[in-house]
Structures are given as structure tokens and as C-alpha cells.
Amino acid sequence: MCGIVGCILKEDEDVAPILFDCISKLEYRGYDSIGLATFSNGKIHIKKDKGKIAEVDKSLNLRDMLGNFGIAHVRWATHGDPSKLNSHPHVDEENSVAIVHNGIIENYLEIKEKLMLEGHVFKSDTDTEVIAHLIEKFMDEGLDLEHAVRKTIGVIEGAYALAAISTREPDKIVATRKDSPLIVGLGEEGYYLASDSPAILKYARDIIYPERGEIVILDKDGVVVHDEFDNVVNKEIDTINWTPEMAEKEGYDHFMIKEINEQAIAVRNTLTQKDNIQEIIDDIDDIQRICFVACGTSYHASLTGKYLLESLAGIPTDVILASEFKYSANTLNDKTLVIFISQSGETADSLKALDVANQTSKTLGIVNVAGSSITRRAQYVIQTQAGPEIGVAATKTYVAQLTAIYLFAALMSKNAELLEELEKVPDFIDETLENVDFIKQISKRYNYARDFFYLGRGYTYPTALEGALKLKEITYIHGEGYAAGELKHGPLALIDEGIPVVVVIPPGDTYKKTMSNLEEVKSRGANVLAVGSADDESLKVKANDVIEINPEVKEIIAPLVYVVPLQLIAYYITLEKGHDPDKPKNLAKCVTVE
Questions:
Q1: pTM, to two decimals
Q2: Is 22 a catalytic residue?
Q3: Who wins on pLDDT, 523 or 417?
Q4: Buried b (16+ CB within 10 A) or exposed e, 371-382
Q5: Catalytic annotation present for 114
Q6: What's the pLDDT tens digit per position in 500-557?
Q7: Residues 6+ apart with CB under 8 A from 109
Q8: Of these residues, 112, 306, 589, 590, which one is catalytic?
Q9: Catalytic residue, candidates 2, 22, 295, 590
């Protein structure tokens, strides 16, 4: 849960300002320290420390470093406390090799002990430092930087994306990856490495995607990729259609509120994937079971998919957390379609599950990042069209995932009416966003709470789960989502005077039962905040507060619209508490290691 960047410029200009700019774009991945390494005058120069990027830059002036190539890193501590010594880049004891690394080296202690017996001196408590020492050791044995890196990855175990430079081979960056993301950018002024595309969009939009075990060599003349047998690999070049401006705040206070306001566009753009989804459905033979595999917010989107596919298409559908998938793998067969949902396409648990599913079943990825690992490993791919999402708490990628799932379910079941309803969703979302001033006021009134409960039924049960997750992620308030019918099976014991209960209650088949649940919690003193139809006069009487939604939003498409005010509630309560919604504590955008 960190980010790496590398750059080599074609001309003899200082690269540090570019490295700093690129690594700053990866703040959303989560970090506790930052560091840069450049090369000039025969030496590797390093500046690094724990702390926020702006704070470390103010202290060390990170942009003032000589050299036209280098590497950079934002770290989230896994081995060793956040400190200057534990920050990346790491070097060997001779300062001849510098490396940055994203991932976890599982056998680092064994390697470290052997190297120490050979006389290597370690400065940090990290697992990463062993990589620098191994590369130096193998270069001492006569290998060049590329083959020293190759031999190193034959020794280390775990997940990694890493980049290395050496004083012995100036003007060169060597990188590789396994189960952690890494992209290579081809720009007019130079060549780039990064953990994610927003880091380098400003400088390069032509991208190649190294596979596991491939070695990437960057120098002034270009990029070369070698496979495990040292053969040159001719990589396909993809052009990212996201603009640099799409990854900026564009006048908004935070990325999260910008991305909430972009949800109508995300839905509208993802609806253009209908023909692609129809082609996938036409190509899939005789599916008797569907299994969604996902984590976090994507898991909630998958739960909505279960309701849709079982009710509309009559196909038995399971939803399994990616981290729990291996315990169900023996139930797969060639009549099973396994659908993997991931914003980044790089989630480690999902990738491991995908490799297992590919052995027996048809696999489909629903992913927002083009060229990511899931898009390259799944047999079929639906590309959501949300654009870059920087805020850690997923918003527009969630509704884009839902849109793709709705399209899949509607086309699978040949439900023309649902396809027509989906076309209305962008306008419904924009209309809901017009309630923002009222939701701001609501957030001030409910800021006191230490606990929230969210209730929903049927299609809106996953929406309640998602609303509670958003609250937990960024406000640090305990929030729990429940199926409303489960109240008497435990949660009702926790309802007390003044506890806020958010009830998601669209008009439809579940309305009467959900209203009964609302009255249950209200009678026990709860403050009820309902999200319901604007023409529901009974709801306005029985709830303490009501966020009104267009009455034309039918129950079946409610998850796409009713989630918007839940996102806004979490956002504005966060502001009331003085937290940064873009950088919640202990969380990162892309969880690429277990």
C-alpha cells in the first residue's frame, strides 16, 4: 500500500521536480513517508523522511536534486515504524545501488540473516532493504544491473513492484513486478515508471504494462522489456484517454466531492458499454451459476448483482469476499461464471482468486483501470468508464460498477424495461445532488453521534451496507448496515434514545415492511433519517428527517440513486469533524498486498 515512480529524461535536465510532481499524485494510495533518489557526478543522492509530502519537502527541498534520472517512493509502513531510516529509497552499504519497492518480501528475515553473515550491514528494519543488498551482491559477482535484478527476484518471495538504479551502470533504471502494479510511460521528454497512471498522466499517456517476472530497462534511448529467458518482448502500447485535468480537483475542495458530482457522467459513460456486454453474453455458453468475487465497496456492488441476476435471470448467484474465496474454490466448474469486480484491477486477493477460477471456470472482470492485471488475466472484461478516482472512499467507481452489473443483468434477462430505466439514472443522480444544501444541514445535526445504523431491504440492503462503510471510512464513526428484517435478531437491542438510524426506503414491494421497521426503531427513541420518495407524506410524518428522491426512481434502480445522499452525509459529517475525506487514517486506495 504505497507508490513508486521512476523517470529518465532524454535531455540533461534535473529530474527531481518531475519525480516530486509524479509521486505527489500518489498520495491517495496511503503513505507515511516519502523519498527520492537521483544520480549525478558518479553518486546516488537521496533525500527522504517520514511525514506528509509537503512537510518533508519544506524541510528537505526534495525538488532540489541533481541528475536527469531517478526513482521516488511514498511508503506505508509494514515492516518497521515510520522513520527516516525506514523510508525508501534504500541502498546497500556501499551506496552503489538504490531501490524503491511496493509490496511485501515474505522471506526477508532468512535472506537478511544470510547477508549479515556475509558482512552486509543493514540500516533499517524493513523487508525492502534486503533487495538492495542482494542486487549489490550479485553485481559484485559480475552480473549487470538487469541480471542482478533477475537473480534477486529468483531469491525473494512475496509481492513486489520495484525499481533500481546503480552507480555502476549510470543512465539506466531497471524495474520488475510480481502481484503489485507497475506501468511504464512513453513520453516526449522521457520514460517513466509508476504504480498508477495518475502519477504520470501529465508527462506520458502512451502506456505499456509489464507482466509478472518481466524485466523493464529504461534509458535515454527508450524502453526494452525482457522475459524470463532474456528474450525481447514486443509490448502493446495503450493510450490512456484520461486527461491530466481529470485527475485534478478542478476547483473542488476535495477529490471525494468532485467524484460524487461526477457520478452522473460515470453512469452515462458506462452505459455505452452495452454492445460490448451483449457480445460477452452471446459468447458465454450455458452458465448455470454465477459467482461474484470482490472486496469492500465492490462487494456491496456484487450483492446488488446477486439480487438482480437471481430475480431477473433466475441464475443462482453467490457473492464471496476475495480473501475467503479459496475456501469455496472446490465448488467451481465449467458451468460457472466467476465475476471479479475491482476498481483498480490490482487487488491482491482478487488476483489470486482469479488465477484459481481460470483453471475451472469462465471469468469476467469488471474493472475501471484499463490494462490492469485483472483485465489481462480474465477471459472477458467490462471496462467501467468512471475516469480516474483519487479519493480513497470509492464513490463514482461504485455507481459505475453498479451500472455495468445492471447492464449485464438486463441483457442476460432480456429486460428491455430495465434498460430504459437505466437511461434515466444520470438525470436522477444530478437531481439528487441538488439537495446538497439540505444534506449539509442534516450532517450538522447528526454530527454528535458515536454510532449509526443503516437499514435497507432487498435491492437497498447492499445500499445500506455501502452507506455505513462510507461513514466508517472517513468519519471514524461506528456505522453498521443491516437487512431491515434482521432487527429483531440482535441489532434492536442496541437501539437507544438519540441513536441515528438511516432508513433507505424507496417506494415498491419492500416499502410496507421497511416502514414497520422504521416505526420499531422510532418507538425506541432513535432519530430516524430516511431517504425516500419526495411524495411520501407518511414518511415525512414518521421520520425525523427525510432526504427526498424523485418519485419516478423505481425500487429496482434505487441503489444507483439512493446511495448518493449517503455518500454526501459521510462527506459533510467528515468536514464537520475536521477530517480530510481524501486521506482517511489507516486506509489506502489500492490494497495490493495481503
A1: 0.80
A2: no
A3: 417
A4: bbbbbebbbbbb
A5: no
A6: 999 999 999 999 999 999 999 998 889 999 999 999 999 999 999 999 999 999 999 9
A7: none
A8: 589
A9: 2
